[in-house]
Amino acid sequence: MFSLDETTTDKLKQISDDLNTQSTALTDGFNIIEHELANLKLGVTAWAKEPIKDKGDTYLFGFCKIKGEWKLVCKKEQVQITTNFKHGSYGLLKTISWMPRHIRIIAASRLEDLVNQIIITAESFNDDIKTALSKIKSTTDGINA
Predict the structure, then answer these.
(1) Is residue 138 part of a domain?
(2) 64, 45 contact by CB (below 8 A)
(3) pLDDT digit string (tens) for 120-141?
(4) Which residues touch 69 (CB under 8 Å, ≥6 apart)?
(5) Which region holds residue 86: left if phi is over 0, alpha if psi is between -120 and 50, else beta?
(6) Number of domains in the chain
(7) Domain range spanning residue 29?
(8) pLDDT (tens digit per residue) in 21-64
(9) Predicted TM-score of the model (pTM)
(10) Beta 57-66 vs 46-47: how paired, if at all?
(11) Distance of alpha carbon 86 from alpha carbon 116, whole angstroms
(12) Looking at the domain assignment, is residue 124 inside a domain?
């Protein structure tokens, strides 16, 4: 029967402690960014341009409202198909904190792009609102003339 010697066990324990500490720090970092974005009250959904590919699945990393709260999320866009059986579902959303560690690591590299997409989307909404307000004003001016 195979068993681990004390040196190997100690090394694995040290690696495990470090890995879990770093993983918690990564999740905490996402939580801080998520909180900061939500507090801005932009009210816009946006997605990073480059998807995350994982074992035949494709995820979009983004920021959107789920159950009344603004969250950093991954949206499953493509599912792995084996024979005629589909694993997973299209459009499945999960908060970033529930994604596997390797997906969170990739998502961290997409944060800057995601923030840029949020800016672009918010500016576009702002321009659209200004246009809509201008049309309303011209309509009311015409009615009042």
Answers:
(1) no
(2) yes
(3) 999 999 999 999 999 999 888 8
(4) 38
(5) beta
(6) 1
(7) 8-131
(8) 999 999 999 999 999 999 999 999 999 999 999 988 899 999 99
(9) 0.82
(10) antiparallel
(11) 34
(12) yes
